[in-house]
């Protein structure tokens, strides 16, 4: 028996209480409560029409029970989320190196005729001697034996550290020491080690940090599997003061737009030695972000497929005693300034007209502002609608009142509106030169066909697909989206959409989730940066929602637009993005074009047998044609869940030979 809080007591009467176990174990009662919950949700969706009915339902005894039932469900969900994200349990289950696997790997390595030599550069800092020893021991513990370790040390290193280093060098011929002169920067010392390195590839290791026993084995495997690889990186986590592994960072495959915002390559980073020498090695003026800068210059020389992501935690970064990875605030800001400079140099080298600044919601990362031409491309904002004058009015007036972009028009496709207030509103806009109205009474609702017809009749350079339930928030939304859309290699650009209650509705679409697709960070509250900042940083996703989607009209026509046959209602925007991706184009999501999305109120929910049947057919088409229920999404990570959109752990991970 669990007594309700004071509010619940006031609802049910003083001294009364609910039997939680009775509610959660009784299937019939749960079904009744769920049905009432759905009813309340439906009323919420039509709140503007049914405020009095909604109020009456909330005040009935069953309404009060439903509210308490939702509290119980939320508590259970919170507890379940904590359990499913217990990294320690996950490691013990999926990251144990058994003796059998150890022997198998050693035997496998012995059969390889050619194995790449990997140099490890370990930069010594002022951490404790015990941390130094742990770093060296983690290299010596590698199952892959073909490595060399170069310790880059200060000339005036502490006596104990000097003694330990000398001992390491004397006891293992694979370990060497390079003395960093006091006048040398870390980049200059690293370049000296680079010149002496004998490895085909080199990895970077900070003293105090450690690498997984299989780190170099997995690197070598990837190199042998992809001989053209030039840059490799892995997932990483942190070591707390008790040597406990915490804070796993499971990264996407290489994501250029995210890479400009944060050094997602991070650790473990492995570079091709010859290319590092050709590109000039580490740059002294970028100390603090020298590794980031080198990775940016590698990107400029490599094809995307030559940058390899190993989706395994191979690097463990030591957290300082203060509880942070960086030692001081000065170091953090210093590294950030160097990172901004590194990205700025990259933009200039590649001829991209843009500026870089601190990301407003995640200041340790970057925001890219692309320059719009003096004569901006024309944009046709296409909005299909039927009745729901109040929604359409909010949408159109918010565009007209807030949009600062000065070369756009609006096309409204009226798909058989009958309500007089809608007809009056459309008549009112008929003489507005900024608005074109297309009447289509003959076509049954087919979202794809309605949009395709409008695009074919448009002469604009770019098309912006928009739902009639969108409400603009940021005045520069179209400038921001256009900045991305005009970049070479970009397909579709999507916006950040919020529910009216200020929780996240769209921050990029992940394929393979829920046997179909899912929205990253869905229902995250405003102000939450998401998983390592991914809810507030510009980045590539496999798809973005068509509720607000900007695309070059030529690209739209080149991939035959939206699918009018198999995808009349849902997934047509997803397939459009996948077709663009198949052509080698990137689909970008930006958090700096923000809108409210009063989701699908015109058409409503899939609450009839006909709608449910159609939804099932469209999902089956996407699964059979595009394999969205099976294929790995490169914007995601196989160690993260596909049954939840909150970037929680996957049980088990979707990678083999663990």
TrEMBL record:
Q: What superkingdom heads the lineage?
A: Bacteria
Q: What UniProt keywords are attached to this protein's entry?
A: Transferase
Q: Which SUPFAM superfamilies match?
A: Nucleotide-diphospho-sugar transferases (SSF53448)
The Glycosyltransferase 2-like domain is annotated at: 129-274, 381-504
Molecular function per GO:
transferase activity
Show the PANTHER family listed in the entry. Answer: RHAMNOSYLTRANSFERASE WBBL
Which protein, by its recorded name, is this?
Glycosyl transferase, family 2
Naturally occurring in which organism (per UniProt): Chlorobium phaeobacteroides (strain DSM 266 / SMG 266 / 2430)
